[in-house]
Structure formats: structure tokens, C-alpha cells
Amino acid sequence: MTRLSSIRMNHLHLSCDVCGHSAQMPVAALIDAIGPETTAHQAAGNARCSRCKVKGQNTFRIIYVGEGWEAMQGARQDR
Ligand SMILES: [Zn+2]
Q1: HSE-up of 75 (CA within 13 Å, CB side)?
Q2: Model confidence, pTM
Q3: 67 Cα: distance to centroid of ligand 1 (angstroms)
Q4: What are the helix (H) ranges across the chain?
Q5: What residues make up the domain containing 23?
Q6: Pseudo-torsion of CA 48, 51, 54, 60, nearest 10°?
Q7: Rounded to an integer, what is the distance from CA 34 to the centroid of its chain?
Q8: 48: CA distance to ligand 1 center in Å?
């Protein structure tokens, strides 16, 4: 499982399976809300669609953003 703390610099993209609405949010904001030990899967399961209000019915993917060197550095240290 991917902990939010290990993808802190990236974004989470959620797409609602019910109405098709999609949204993207910074992982850092999720960490502030639900904590760094939460997994990306759990975060998606707790997310509620802002359009149709259905909870947890979504497909998520991690959007890697930022500088490549820093991203690789973070992955290697795995902290
Ligand atoms: Zn929806």
C-alpha cells in the first residue's frame, strides 16, 4: 500500500464511478486532513464526490508532480 507520507509531493486524482466527475488534490492537503499514515487507497475510500455526494465510489491514481530529481530522491529514501 502507498502511504500518503511517501507521495507527499504529488497529487491524487479521483474520478467518480457514478457521475464521472473528476478532481485532483495535493497529497499534502490530504495529509493535513487525515494524516500521513493513511494509504492512498483509504483516502480514496473516504473521499466524497463533490457533485453527486456518493462516498468511496471512485477510481484514483497518483499524479507525480514536481522536479524529477527530488521525486527520485524521495522514492529512494522512502521516508
Ligand atoms: Zn459523483
Answers
A1: 9
A2: 0.77
A3: 32
A4: 27-34, 40-46, 68-77
A5: 4-77
A6: -60
A7: 11
A8: 8
